[in-house]
Amino acid sequence: MAFDLIVRGGVLPDGRTADIGIEGETITAIEPQLEAEAGTVVDASGDLVSAPFVDPHFHMDATLSYGIPRINASGTLLEGISLWGELKPLLTHEAVSDRALRYCDWAVSMGLLAIRTHVDVCDDRLLAVEALLDVKKQIAPYIDLQLVAFPQDGFYRSPTARENTLRALDRGVDVVGGIPHFERTMADGTRSVTELCEIAAKRGLMVDMHCDETDDPLSRHIEQLAYEAQRLGLQGRTAGSHLTSMHSMDNYYVSKLLPLMAEAQVSAIPNPLINIMLQGRHDTFPKRRGLTRVKEMQALGIRVGWGQDCVLDPWYSLGTADMLDVAFMGLHVAQMSSPAEMARCFDMVTNVNAAIMGLDHLGLEVGKRASLVVLDAENPVEAVRLRAERLCVISRGKIVATRPKRDTSLSIAGRPGSVNRRHDAGGTA
Ligand code: FE2
Q: Which one of 39, 185, 285, 332 has the largest count of C-beta atoms within 10 Å of its C-beta?
């Protein structure tokens, strides 16, 4: 038997050591030892081999625009939105597309091979929509890009947002978005959730709304989102992004809300890097940290992933397209400290995020697409701890990025040997 490519000796996230055989764009064998030839062999001995990283929440129309035309002085969500409003009229198709493609190169090099990006439709030119639809075609060999029609300035609050949302969906945007907490009133927010879910149901699309990204405990649009998902048959294809108000909600109310979300099969996409930065800005002390109730939702079977949200844009001044940074921050803020919880954080930025986006073709299994990542770590927890190097990235059966192992030969003066951040745990008692 011959394969096009074999990844030899890698450690799978579940701890098994295996060879992975690839034919064309498909994984066709995963076995302890493959007695076979291959056109290309990747030596992954002792290295973690995993499904690719997936980001279910991003803003690719704004990425890498940090500082244009100025920076966000208050560090709040609302100043970020007004700053984006200043930048929007200055955008050109070419600039949006160049920045997005540059970001996609970063993403591929970090093993991030599927991204859901919201794209602002509150610009009558739909310039960012057109630019990202072009980008989607160009990067298809490397990255699955899903676009969400996102009425940033409010579906009702912005006079042409409704019409533009429909125009964007007509042009091939995949998912229906929304921002109910930014409408003028709670009632308008509620109505926007209903109408947007009806649009999605009518067109057979998924829904992913920015929902309750505020510290106001009375921002409860997630309740309406779950209700509409159930009423309209959108179970399993609806997500609520951010959900930060849940951090501050009354506990009794949450005890009723979470079972509704579970019944409606609504997924949650918290974005820990961004919300740890944006939330609580109106508090003195104690200062709320604004992360939604991750472990509590997971305990009820609600699907919860980790999203990145922003890299170098009006809302966030850092970022590297590394989903392990996202998992690392999420792990801390959600206090996911047990070995199982830490490993789950890795699963969230790979398999769980893929499931939220409906990407059934991704995963480290025979018959799935041959997209995978070799990491300089021996297990998922170590990968999160080290934000481990991506040694080899394979997309659709082709090697698309490689990087040498980190040089650990640095010596410390007065200490024997050299520094190695792997395998350091344990030792004698
Ligand atoms: Fe967002």
A: 332
